[in-house]
DNA sequence: AGGATTTTACACTAGGTAGTTTACTTTTGG
DNA sequence: CCAAAAGTAAACTACCTAGTGTAAAATCCT
C-alpha cells in the first residue's frame, strides 16, 4: 500500500507528460500547439497551465523525465584473465543497447528538435547525454595498462568505436531514415566492431 | 564580355537566395519569416514573392542551388600497382573533403531542419545526398576483386569507413557541437581510418 | 524620350499560437 | 457534509505569419 495513492492531480500531470512525449516526438515541438496537446491529453488547456507554467517549462520537464528513464547501463569491468574480444564485444553490446534504445533516441530527438538552433544549449545537452561514452573509455584504459592493447590513443580509440556504433544504430534512427536495430543486428554490429578494432590495436 | 550582364532582377534574386541561405542556416527555416528575410535581403517582400511563388518554393530552390554547389568530388580509381594504404588514404581524404565541406554541411543543415518531421521526404533527400558514398564502394570492389582485401563485405566495409569519417567530421558539425576540421585534422582522420580498416581487411 | 517591366511601401486578409480570464462544475479530504 | 482544491469550456488578448492587392516610383530597353 505504501505506493498507492496517485491523486487525480498526479494522474492529470502524467497524462499531460505522456501526451507531450507522444506529440513532440511524432509532430515536433514547434508543430504541437498547447491546444492540441491539451486535447490529446484529454485535459483542459487551463489544467496544462496549472501544472506547467509555460510550454518551455513543459519541454524541459519532459526532457528531464526522459533523461531519467533512459539513464542506466553497464557492461562490466575489465578482467585480466578473460578473452579480449569476448569482453569488448559484451561491452560494446551493452553500449549499443543503451544508445540505440527507443527511450534514448526519442529523448535525443526531442532535444535536437528543440535545440537545433541553439548550438550552445545543444552542446551542453550533448555533454550530459554523452555520459554513456565513459564505460568503454574505462575499459580501454584498463586493457592498455595491462599491456594487451598497443598503439592506442584512448580518446581516439573510444571515438572510433562510438563512431562505428552510432553511424549504424543512432544517427540514422535519430533522423528516422532507418528502423531500430533488432537483437541480432545489434549483436552482429558489436561483433564486427570489436573485430575491426582489435585487428588494429591488439598487442 | 560573354558573361557580363546580370540584370537588376537577377541581382535581386541572388540577394534573396543569399539572405535565405544565411537566415535558414543561422535561425532555421521555421524561425525565419518572409518579412525578416525580405529585410535581410534588402528587398521588398513583394519582390520576394515576385521571384518565388511561396516560401516552400524558395526553400526547395535554395536547396537545389546548394546541392549543385556542393556536388563534385573524386579521389581517383583503383590502381593495381600502387600501395593500398596510400590509395585508400587519398580516397578517404577526398571523401572527407566533400562530406565535411561547409557547403555540404550547410545544405544538410537546411534539409534536416526542413525535413526533420517528414521522415519520408527526408529519406528521399538522404538518398540524393549520399551519392557520395559510391566512390569508396567502387574502389573496395576493385581492390577485393584484385585479391588484395579479404573477408570483406563491400556494403559493411564501406559503411564502416563512412561511419568512422562522419562520426568525426559530419554529424557533430551538422549539429554545430564541433567546428569544421582543418586540413591537418582531415589528413590525420583519413590516415588512421585507412590504417584501422586495412589492419583488418588487408589480404 | 517613352513605354514596358520591376521594385517598393503599405495596407490588408485569413489564420494560427501562447497564455489569461471568467464563471461554473467536479473531486477531495478532514 | 461541506469548504477548499482542482478541473472545465469558452471567450478573449496580443501577437505573429504567409500571402495578396494596389498605386506610385525607379529602372530598363529601344
Number of domains of chain A: 2
Low-confidence parts of chain A lasting 5 or more residues at pLDDT below 50? Answer: none
Going by CATH, what is the homologous superfamily of the largest domain in chain A? Tetracycline Repressor, domain 2
Strand and helix order of chain A:
HHHHHHHHHHH
The total of beta strands of chain A comes to 0
CATH class of the largest domain in chain A: Mainly Alpha
Shape of chain A: elongated
CATH architectural designation of the largest domain in chain A: Orthogonal Bundle
Estimated share of beta-strand residues of chain A: under 5%
At the third CATH level, what is the topology name of the largest domain in chain A? Tetracycline Repressor, domain 2
Helix amount of chain A, in percent? Answer: over 70%
Quaternary state of this entry equals homodimer
Tell me the major beta sheet of chain A: none
Rg of chain A, nearest Å = 21 Å
Question: Count the helices of chain A. How many?
Answer: 11
Please give the alpha-carbon distance between the first and last residues of chain A: 57 Å
Amino acid at each position: 500500500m505504501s505506493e498507492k495513492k496517485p491523486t487525480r492531480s498526479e494522474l492529470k500531470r502524467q497524462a499531460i507528460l505522456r501526451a507531450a512525449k507522444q506529440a513532440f516526438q511524432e509532430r515536433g515541438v514547434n508543430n504541437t500547439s498547447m491546444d492540441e496537446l491539451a486535447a490529446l491529453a484529454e485535459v483542459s488547456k487551463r489544467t496544462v497551465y496549472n501544472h506547467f507554467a509555460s510550454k518551455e517549462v513543459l519541454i524541459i520537464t519532459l526532457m528531464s523525465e526522459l533523461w531519467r528513464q533512459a539513464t542506466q547501463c553497464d557492461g562490466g569491468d575489465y578482467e585480466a584473465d578473460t578473452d579480449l574480444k569476448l569482453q569488448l564485444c559484451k561491452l560494446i553490446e551493452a553500449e549499443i543497447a543503451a544508445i540505440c534504445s527507443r527511450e534514448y533516441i526519442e529523448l535525443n530527438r526531442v532535444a535536437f528538435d528543440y535545440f537545433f538552433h541553439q548550438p550552445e544549449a545543444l552542446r551542453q545537452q550533448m555533454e550530459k547525454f554523452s555520459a554513456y561514452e565513459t564505460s568503454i573509455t574505462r575499459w580501454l584504459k584498463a586493457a592498455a595498462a595491462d599491456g594487451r592493447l598497443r598503439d592506442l590513443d584512448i580518446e581516439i580509440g573510444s571515438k572510433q568505436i562510438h563512431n562505428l556504433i552510432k553511424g549504424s544504430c543512432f544517427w540514422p534512427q535519430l533522423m528516422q531514415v532507418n528502423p531500430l536495430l533488432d537483437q541480432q543486428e545489434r549483436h552482429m554490429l558489436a561483433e564486427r566492431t570489436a573485430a575491426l578494432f582489435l585487428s588494429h590495436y591488439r598487442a
